[in-house]
Task: structure prediction
Amino acid sequence: MSTTVHLAQQPEADELLGRSPLAVLTGMLLDQQIPMEWAFTGPWTIARRLGADDLDAHRIAAADPEEFAALLSEKPAVHRYPGSMANRVQQLCRYLVEHHDGDAEAVWRDAPNGRELLKRLGELPGFGKQKAQVFLALLGKQYGVAPEGWREAAGPYGEEGSFRSVADVTGPESLVRVRAFKQEAKKAAKAAKSAKQAQG
Result:
């Protein structure tokens, strides 16, 4: 797997994301409650602190939980909640070791169709339906992983030409457009909630 991405907006971190299935899967896991670039820089930061040029699911799964949490908590922290996210990263790696011999790419390598791939992604620790759909769209749009029906399985995130999620970020300009979309969506959700409360 080798592709050029701009998810972290940082050359070294993006280079790792372009060649490492586990790195991009970990970046997606970290992508909540913090800016996207911070989340997707995380895998590179973790690899560097482990003294490696890639993430190793076996090594992370077997790491001492307190030591691994301390590694993510070092300044600058890998996430706003480094302790709980360290635990999630280890859970993900343990799952990959148990079900795929530590090979992250095995999750999608031979998926026969989009529906099956969505199911596999949804079984990963820390991946709810929305995260699984966004990651499926990212694989299809930027990593060439396009089993039959992948756009349908990814829901609105699979739409061509959309600026809805990390799957649509290919550089600084598209990042601005995705941010604007998310802000609008948040505003609309807030307005709908207020209207509902007013009716109640």
Summary: The chain is about 65% helix and 0% strand. The mean pLDDT is 92.
